[in-house]
Design goal:
The chain is mainly α and 471 residues long. The protein has a single domain, classed as Hydantoin permease (Orthogonal Bundle), CATH 1.10.4160.10. The protein has 18 helices and no strands. Helix 1 runs parallel beside helix 11, helix 3 packs across helix 15 and helix 4 packs antiparallel against helix 5. The protein is globular and about 75 Å long. InterPro entries: CodB, Pur-cyt_permease, Pur-cyt_permease_Fcy2/21/22. Its main location: membrane. It is found in: Membrane. Belongs to the purine-cytosine permease (2.A.39) family.
Length: 471
């Protein structure tokens, strides 16, 4: 094969459309990618957080909030498959070429944030291993911050290795990691249920002062899963078939999230029953694994799960950055965001509550990205009738240039959606029932449809008048 014509070794920039002969991800590669992305310590942790709604509430929230998020992911994954560009490049069609820099910047920051979150949780595992093997203090003990810094350094080196060659190295990491994380999930599920009956877990109730409202849990779970959506086209653009781009991610993401959130739920509740204390701050898998006595092997697997999840996070962050500037190559961008994420991971060591920071981070995701997804989906499927021109996505003064590179209608609707989230999130009805995230997505989509149709009608009318005057 002529190596000059072999695109499979290339990492494409955000706006470059991936040709058919460079699409190397098969159906089961995509399933493995999204199992690896969701079967991790972050999913475990969020399961423990929503355990504050008790067993029935947490299972309800998990079964409702996440499939909706992954339907949204499949819809955008299909756009990436058809157009061949990254998710943030797709926003050029709706927000304008320059307008897309806003979601791209937000996306880069959120995936760097996710990397930091997962790295911090994995560094806790490293600290427990250092305690067991070397006698060093673990996280939460006097002197534990030094051990955590060692853990952060170890994880950052693993992350650099996982994204060294872009989507190809990510594919290898996911293939290796998926089996290990599933074994760990089965292992902990068996251990918890051997020590505590499912009946006791199902009947447990959290203390009144630590009970989480159902709507708040819905927002936490929705934001957790929606956080993956901006990464979807980074992978579906390399998918070989439509099913690879739509069905495969939903299978992998739902399967892994249901299972590992369930593990987090029963593990946290089981520990609360055993110790008599429910503290969602200690729902991280390292603490639970340590208290369940699963040992260093389980902690090592947790470290691997962080690597598989963060490979996807870093891929999305780095490629999003190339939508803002062409001065950085895709691989350089991947390395840059990895280094920045390592620095950000240190910050929680100086905060009073990691849990509080985690929930604020999820609120940020739901607030800014829910409206973006609504606009992108409505724009592609209903305004442009499933037809984006990949070449025009990079065309100055082309069809996606709008007004000096900005689609003011999309930006105005997005701001409206953000404000609506801030208002609805505090209303008692939404706090106690369905949350604000999905109602705001529906509202934003409806507003954009109306505004974009009016914008198109006005453009058609002005064009007709100009033609008439010219005649």
């Amino acid at each position: 094969m002529d190596r000059n014509n072999d695109h499979t070794s290339r990492e494409f920039g955000a706006v470059e459309s991936v040709p058919a002969n460079a699409r190397s991800l098969a159906f089961w590669d995509m399933v493995a990618t999204w199992i690896g992305a969701n079967a991790n310590n972050g999913t475990w942790y969020v399961g423990g957080v929503v355990a504050g709604t008790a067993f029935a509430g947490s299972v309800y929230v998990t079964l409702i909030a996440n499939p909706i998020a992954y339907i949204i992911m499949a819809l955008i994954g299909f756009i990436g498959f058809k157009v061949g560009t990254s998710t943030m490049a797709l926003t050029r069609a709706s927000f304008g070429i320059r307008g897309s820099y806003l979601p791209s910047f937000l996306n880069t920051t959120q995936f760097i944030g996710w990397t930091a979150v997962n790295t911090f949780i994995a560094a806790i595992s490293v600290s427990f291993i250092c305690k067991e093997w070397l006698g060093m203090p673990a996280f939460g003990e006097p002197g534990g911050n030094t051990t955590m810094l060692i853990g952060i350094a170890v994880m950052s080196i693993l992350h650099l290795l996982s994204i060294a060659t872009g989507h190809r190295s990510v594919k290898i990491v996911e293939r290796i990691g998926v089996f290990l994380v599933l074994i760990l999930g089965a292992w902990e599920t068996i251990v918890v249920l051997q020590n505590i009956s499912l009946e006791a877990i199902m009947s447990w109730q959290p203390p009144a002062d630590k009970r989480m409202p159902l709507g708040s849990a819905m927002d936490v779970m929705a934001a957790f899963s929606l956080g993956w959506v901006p990464a979807i086209a980074e992978f579906t653009r390399y998918g070989k078939t439509k099913a690879t781009a739509t069905i495969a991610p939903m299978i992998g993401a739902n399967l892994a999230l249901f299972w590992f959130a369930f593990v987090g739920i029963i593990g946290t509740i089981g520990m609360a029953i055993t110790t008599g204390v429910y503290d969602p701050n200690h729902s991280d898998p390292s603490t639970i694994v340590s208290k369940l006595g699963l040992g260093s092997v389980a902690l090592l697997v947790i470290i691997i799960t962080s690597t598989t999840a963060n490979a996807v996070n870093l891929m999305a962050a780095g490629i999003s950055l190339t939508n803002i500037t062409k001065k950085l190559s895709p691989i350089t961008s991947l390395w840059l965001v990895t280094v920045v994420a390592a620095g950000l991971t240190v910050v929680p060591l100086f905060l009073s509550s990691f849990l509080h920071s985690f929930i604020l981070f999820l609120d940020y995701i739901g607030m800014v990205f829910g409206p973006i997804f609504a606009i992108l989906i409505v724009d592609y499927y209903f305004i442009h009738n499933r037809n984006y021109d990949p070449a025009a996505l990079a065309e100055r003064c082309g069809k996606y240039w709008y007004s000096n590179g900005f689609n003011k209608v999309a930006l105005a609707v997005w701001v409206t959606g953000v404000i609506a989230f801030l208002l609805l999130q505090k209303q008692p009805f939404f706090v106690s029932s369905i949350g604000a995230t999905y109602p705001v997505i529906v509202l934003t989509g409806a507003l954009y449809y109306i505004a974009a149709k009016r914008q198109a009608a006005a453009h058609t009318s002005n064009t007709a008048k100009e033609d008439a005057n010219a005649y």
